[in-house]
């Protein structure tokens, strides 16, 4: 259903969204897509800005994708604010919003049950069952603790690409591995889409912007600064030759985060393109990737109740 | 590289193929794709004919897809005859042919080795590594003996769809499970493609047409008729009420094929859409699917040397 009488058209079905994009393309306009899960911050809006420079019209999608959450993860408490998101997108000069209720066919079983999270196989043989997997790049870093995460990301991005048919798609490099995985998927499956990766946007004090930051307690918000500070330290220490072994960089950075009260998911130095292990810091492009958890303000009532909370991951 | 000076344009790169299709679409023409592995017979040409009725221009692809063959299977001896194929397609009124050398990025490792068959993970972290999987529908029937087959089919069809950007794609229902898997993939991933499944084409004596029939010995060619005859028997027996249990139909048909010297891969009665088990023959659409091997004329020198040979599978 389209609501084109509004200033910013908002489409909730694939058919309406595709029809709008095709009309744009027929008029010779180049189309860019900015896929998001909503709860937008300056980082997202910087992607819209970049998209406007790459194309004539910009579509932003807002969809919290169930297939990239595991059952114990924070799908239910993922922050949502669609009305404010639409205002922000309109102000940023976005041209259309795709905001579907659901993107997955879910056929209720005989008992009428239907799972919201379709990442794992469920019930009825008529339900969604097709997935796109980037087999190697999905494994390290976030793939370690979230084995189905990138399968969910690739699957929903494939669907969004097929619905919105963009010429260009813009992703943030805060989610560095996601950006690399999408680039590989686009290359391997011959998607006719140019993928653009934009730099991390940071708060004035250095924290990488993230929708999940909203779930950090005030104290955690302060403590999480150890990540950006640690990355700055590592960059300087390597440049000055104070540390030269990848393992030493990782161990020292991990120590700093744990000292600040963070629970480290990973601190790793990898080949920046292939995300494969490296033995030195000089002979190839190097990624230093960090993900850590800090207590959430709502830890008592969320799925993230196992001592972890919101996560802030950053890469240089 | 295009060879548009020929009557039938033949494209060997994704970029040239896509450019040609986009030009057609810009002129308002509807595009159909007929994906094939070449060595064309009347069955393929019936798909071209159907495609012409559904669209303004028809592209046929000829590509023996390595990712759908396992290492022990017949990739190396799969029959090929591209020159004759092109003549047949021109005569059938096809408008363009996509005939790529390779569709997969394969980066040689440090030892210079690069595998032709990229279905399994190989060497270099820069090589192809993205696959599309229809998780449930791929499992029964052919999936039992060929666990990676449909993953390879879905991956190459995704690539062909992205390169040729068809409005319509036409498949043969001889490969019934493949047709159902593709339909599900298209639905689940929101491909903007209409999938059309055409009936089996049969030789005058009833054998389903198949490129692999060329590998049957004359004796096997005769014996393989037990399949089409068995299917006709089953249809009649069920219609007349002579057999009413799915398991009885399967057991009797299996017996007929084994008696004729065939090695049965499967004889199964399943739900025709979901390929799930059924308990009776009346309450839902039923598929009777058969695959059997018969000795090949070249059995001594092929990968199919384990007592099996060319396969002829048929469904009603």
UniProtKB/TrEMBL annotation, chains A, B:
Q: Which Pfam families match?
A: Pantoate_ligase
The keyword Cell membrane is annotated on this UniProt entry: no
Pathway given for this chain reads:
Cofactor biosynthesis; (R)-pantothenate biosynthesis; (R)-pantothenate from (R)-pantoate and beta-alanine: step 1/1
Q: Which superkingdom does the taxonomy of this entry point to? A: Eukaryota
Q: Which GO terms describe its molecular function?
A: ATP binding; pantoate-beta-alanine ligase activity
State the UniProt keywords alphabetically: ATP-binding, Ligase, Nucleotide-binding, Pantothenate biosynthesis
What are the record's GO terms for cellular component? cytosol
Catalytic activity reads:
(R)-pantoate + beta-alanine + ATP = (R)-pantothenate + AMP + diphosphate + H(+)
According to its UniProt record, the EC number is 6.3.2.1
**InterPro entries membership:** Cyt_trans-like, Pantoate_ligase, Pantoate_ligase_C, Rossmann-like_a/b/a_fold
GO terms, biological process:
pantothenate biosynthetic process
- Provide the family line: Belongs to the pantothenate synthetase family.
Q: What is this protein called?
A: Pantoate--beta-alanine ligase
